[in-house]
Known about the structure:
The chain has helices at residues 2-9, 13-25, 51-63, 71-80, 98-111, 121-125, 134-141, 166-188, 204-212, 246-253; strands spanning 27-28, 32-36, 38-39, 48-49, 67-68, 84-85, 88-94, 115-119, 145-149, 194-196, 216-218, 237-238, 256-257, 260-264, 278-283, 294-297, 301-303, 305-307, 314-318, 326-335, 342-351. By secondary structure, it is α/β, with parallel strands linked by helices. It folds into 3 domains: 1-28, no CATH class; 31-256, Glycoside hydrolase/deacetylase (TIM Barrel); 263-351, Immunoglobulin-like, CATH 2.60.40.
Amino acid sequence: xxxxxxxxxxxxxxxxxxxxxxxxxxxxxxxxxxxxxxxxxxxxxxxxxxxxxxxxxxxxxxxxxxxxxxxxxxxxxxxxxxxxxxxxxxxxxxxxxxxxxxxxxxxxxxxxxxxxxxxxxxxxxxxxxxxxxxxxxxxxxxxxxxxxxxxxxxxxxxxxxxxxxxxxxxxxxxxxxxxxxxxxxxxxxxxxxxxxxxxxxxxxxxxxxxxxxxxxxxxxxxxxxxxxxxxxxxxxxxxxxxxxxxxxxxxxxxxxxxxxxxxxxxxxxxxxxxxxxxxxxxxxxxxxxxxxxxxxxxxxxxxxxxxxxxxxxxxxxxxxxxxxxxxxxxxxxxxxxxxxxxxxxxxxxxxxxxxxxxxx
Length: 360
């Protein structure tokens, strides 16, 4: 940037043009966030990658021109409109499992890659065998790990307790976030005000609460973080089981944010009288092929896209099948104009049990 400024001040227009083109070609306003849980061959496949698979992921990033940056740097850059290197990636781990220290940390340290551990503090405080200790978290913090907030108990925060008023429910969730943040600061010295929703579950009231507290929130829906993203529910690509296979990994880490200006509904919650919810998105202009935009539902595969205007700036999509109890997604993607990368957006749905409880 200093070189560009000097260039323009000296009126060397041809050189300036070349520098500007080069700078723009190698900068971006978005980043891919990856979400891992266990890194082990002996843990549930649905939330695990093997150490060999993680090594393949890290080697691919290292060999193909990616920049792995700290979560704080990337969040601040995107929010403040500062450019990032093209193909920027952030690595995160949820739940503070011991396998992160045993199997992921050595690989990350060897690469010099920063990473984040979102900690649910109760299992750590109680010394549960499968979880990290505070000593291990502090050690990783000295080698580039950001230690961030994942609640006390990893409960379903959208669920109200029996006989709990709305205000009591809000206060309980506020206290859980604040107590977790205070405990992390006490034990590690870090307090970055980044919060990963347990199970990726949030509703508008909780997101508003988080924003009022000055926190940035992260979900578990796929997609890319960009300037139009909702900073109370930023997307991350879950990496586990088949979703961590190399073919899909290559597509995801090279993806770009579908520029969604507005979405309806602005909520994940599925009601009993609307079990086939429609999603309407309004798009900003972008370097993607609108005619090739496709959407998919987790319970139905590809689902129809209906454009609502001739300019193809608004469309709606809906599953033909009722969503099951639990978490579901609609994913919408479109290839870039050169066909080399995909623009991506995901919306998570949440349907509770009849008694208002959620499933893990």
